[in-house]
Design goal:
The chain contains five helices and four strands; from the N terminus they run H-H-E-H-E-H-E-H-E. It has 175 residues and is an alpha+beta fold. A four-stranded antiparallel beta sheet has the order 1-2-4-3, sandwiched between helices. It starts with a helix and ends in a 25-residue tail after the last strand. The structure holds flavin mononucleotide.
Length: 175
C-alpha cells in the first residue's frame, strides 16, 4: 500500500479481537517509533510495552473516559518523553505515537490513541501519576499517550475524501 492510500485507510480502532499480534509486527511498530523524527535528534522518548491482560485492565481506568478501550487491546505502548532532556518532548512523543499508528495500519492492525498528558481519572488524579504508580517509571518521564493496538474487530470507512477541510488551508499570495 502506498502512503497516499495508507493515510486514507488509517482510522482509530477501539474494538479488537482476541488474536495476539506477532512479535515481528510489534518489532516493526517499535522500529517505526525509534525512526521517528525528534527535535535536535535527541531521541529522548521511552516506550513501555504492555501485553499483560491484568495490567491492560488497570491502565484502562486511568481516565474517567477515553481510556477504556485499552483493556481490549492486544498490546498497549505507553509513549513517554523526558522533560529533563528536551522541551520538545511532547512533540517528539506525539510524532513517535502517530508513526506507530501508521505502521500498525500498514500491517492491517487497528490502533487508537489514549491521551494521558493533562488528563485525569474519575477522582481527578492525574492519569500520568496513576500510570507511573502502575508501571513504575521515573519522575523525569511523563506519559503523552498510550497507543492501544490489536486486530480490528470492526471495519471502519476510509477517510472521506469529499469531507476534507480544504477551507482550513490558505495559500499565501504576494501583494
Ligand atoms: C492528541 C489526540 C488525543 C486523542 N485522545 C483520545 C483518547 O483519549 N481516547 C480515544 O478513544 N481516542 C483518542 N484520540 C483519537 C481521536 O478521537 C481520533 O483520532 C479522531 O476522532 C479522528 O478519528 P480517526 O482517527 O478515525 O480519523 C485522540 C487523538 C489524538 C490525535
Amino acid at each position: 500500500m502506498d502512503f497516499k492510500d495508507l493515510v486514507q485507510k488509517r482510522r482509530s480502532i477501539r474494538k479488537f479481537t482476541d488474536e495476539e499480534i506477532s512479535s515481528e509486527q510489534l518489532q516493526l511498530i517499535l522500529r517505526a517509533a525509534l525512526m521517528s523524527p525528534t527535535s535536535k535528534g535527541t531521541r529522548a522518548w521511552h516506550f513501555i510495552v504492555v501485553d499483560d491482560k491484568d495490567m491492560l485492565e488497570k491502565m484502562s481506568n486511568v481516565r474517567e473516559m477515553g481510556s477504556q478501550f485499552v483493556a481490549g487491546a492486544a498490546v498497549a505502548i505507553v509513549v513517554l518523553g523526558d522533560r529533563d532532556v528536551t522541551d520538545a518532548w511532547v512533540e517528539d512523543a506525539a510524532l513517535a505515537a502517530v508513526t506507530m499508528q501508521y505502521q500498525a495500519a500498514e500491517l492491517g492492525l487497528g490502533s487508537c490513541w489514549c491521551h494521558i498528558r493533562n488528563r485525569f481519572s474519575a477522582v481527578q488524579e492525574p492519569a500520568d501519576n496513576l500510570l507511573r504508580f502502575l508501571l513504575k517509571y521515573p519522575e523525569n518521564l511523563t506519559a503523552e499517550c498510550i497507543i492501544g493496538i490489536g486486530h480490528p474487530a470492526i471495519e471502519r470507512k476510509l477517510q472521506d475524501e469529499d469531507g476534507l477541510k480544504w477551507e482550513n488551508v490558505s495559500i499565501y499570495k504576494k501583494d
